[in-house]
Amino acid sequence: MQTTLDPAPTAVGDTDVTRTAAEHRPARSSSWRALRHSDFRRYFVGTVFSNFGTWLQNTAQMLLAYKLTGSVMAVGIVTCAQFSSVLVLGPWAGMLADRAKDRRRLLIWTQTGSALVAFGLAIFNAVGWLDQRTLIVGALLIGLSYTFSLPMFNAIIPTLVPEEDTKAAMAMNTVSYNLGRAVAPVIGVGVVVVIGFTWAFLLNGVSFVILAMVLWMIRPGHVERPQRPSRLMDGFRLARRDRKILLLLAMVSSCTVATDPPNVLGPALAAEEFGHSPGWAGFFIAALGLGNVLGAFVPTRSISLQSAGWYVGGLGIAMVVFSVSPWLGLSIAAGVAGGVAALLAGAATQTMLLQRAGPFHAGQVMAVWAIAFAGSRPIASVIDALLASATSIRFAGVAFAFPALLIGVAAVCMRLLPALTIPVRRILTGPQEAIATSNPRVT
Fold first, then answer.
1. How far is CA 246 from CA 76, 249, 369, 420, 436, in A?
2. For 70-108, how does the pLDDT look when each residue is reduced to its tens digit (9 = 90+)?
3. Which residue in 51, 84, 265, 383 is deepest, having the highest Cβ count within 10 Å?
4. How far apart are CA 235 and CA 357, in angstroms?
């Protein structure tokens, strides 16, 4: 796979993974080709179940928080609680992902812990003890597990496929996350209305158990370890040294910020702007997920910073339309378009980050990616709610799409007005040592 970044060899060692590139080098094909590898196929199925349960609970949490308080701020606080630990503990999670001798076993433990929390929330709701404070505590605990598992999941994916299928596998990992988002929110509304919030939490617990069982079955390929154990701030040092990594992380963060309004502002937008039940917020979230799934069918091409910028800009445009549309159907359609752009942007940025980092620093760099991706969410959720309360729901949605729009404009200028962007190009291509080729024992 050719990119504008320095490619790094990915060391893998499983019989299903170590086939030659000549056997698996389609010129252009969809991301679904990654499923032909048996271990990744099992992993994909397990994460689909888990993400379905996660989005089922996320929808229930959002609706329950809004039902208990009638406040957008309450929804923002619960969302903030679920992702706040990434900001505080993200560096430790990356260090653990690099130092762990058996990432698979640690992932099994994190999923088991999440299942226990989900079952606990179900019990508390069944006996009438679940209030806003308990909901926040449950979100914090599941977020803690998410913080430590996220960099390990991203680091383990390249060991399940050959190097040329890494981008396809990263895209499919995003698809598994968003298959749940495409279906579960709508089903979650039905579950809450028909049989209650307890079942949403219970089903999420079952989904974590299924993923833990799948992780026990797969056998990731071997990755050579660095001679020096990773340290706490290594990921930040690597990002500071490499301007391209910084730009990629800015793209990741802008995508998270742009897609926040459907999650936080959804219930209020449906009720106050469109005059429908707050439950219609589930359709906004599902639209983004459906777009991500559709994006996996887009033929893969060579990736670059410029093409990734186009995808981010497209997401920004879609989210502006979502926020200002006077028609519910157009907002849902814009959510689908935004989901397609988000999938393409996410797959491109994750692939380039992994290739830039190389196998020795994958966990460190992906921990910083986790902070940019998930760590942006708690801050965005609170600011989004505050801005909507101070101004309007539609204004807040447009404001949060603005960073993505700026990146898209910059990418267009790099193509149409290359003379004006020469200073930016020099900054990105100036003298600096590529991380991927500076790893010890990498030739």
1. 27, 5, 10, 21, 15
2. 777 888 888 788 877 777 776 777 667 666 677 788 889
3. 265
4. 9
